[in-house]
Amino acid sequence: VGVPVSSDIWSAMIASRSLDISSVVTHRFPATSWAEHAGTYVNRQGLRQIADKALEPQGGSAPAWEHVRRLALALGLEPGWTKLKDLRALLTAQSVPSTPNVVTTASAET
C-alpha cells in the first residue's frame, strides 16, 4: 500500500465490496455477493454444497469466475471453460477429491 504504480504495471481487484486497498488498484471488477450467484462452497471437512443464486446481481456486478475468464481472455489466455458447470467439472476432475457426502441444494447449473 502506498507504492506508486507506473503506467506499465497494473493491478486488479475482484471483490463484492469496497476494501481499503481499492484506492491503489488500477482495475476494479465488481463481483457478486454469495447470494447473487450460483456457486460451490466447501467447508473444512470437505463437504461440498452447490447453491443457486437467491437474488439478481446489482449494477454491473458479475460472479468472480466470469471476471477471471474475461481477464484471462483479455491477456490472450484461454481458460478452458465458458460456463460455471464447465469450471465445476474441471475443478472436480483436477483438484477436488471425490466425496460421498455431497449436499446439493441447486436444481440447475448455469
Strand order of the largest sheet: 3-4-5
How many strand segments? 5
- How helix-rich are the residues, as a percent range? 10-25%
* Rg result: 16 Å
Mean pLDDT: 75
Strand content: 15-25%
Number of helices: 2
Low-confidence stretches: 1-6, 105-110
Order of helices and strands: EEEEHHE
Q: How widely separated are the two ends?
A: 37 Å
Structure description:
- Helices cover 20% and strands 16% of the residues.
- It has helices at residues 64-74, 84-94, and strands at 12-15, 27-30, 39-42, 48-51, 103-104.
- Residues 1-6 and 105-110 have low confidence and may be disordered.
- Strands 3-4-5 form a 3-stranded mixed beta sheet, with no helix packed on it. Strands 1-2 form a two-stranded parallel ribbon.
- The termini are far apart.
- The radius of gyration is 16 Å and the shape is globular.
- It contains 2 helices and 5 strands, in the order ββββααβ.
- The longest helix has 11 residues, at 64-74.
- It has 110 residues and is α/β, with parallel strands linked by helices.
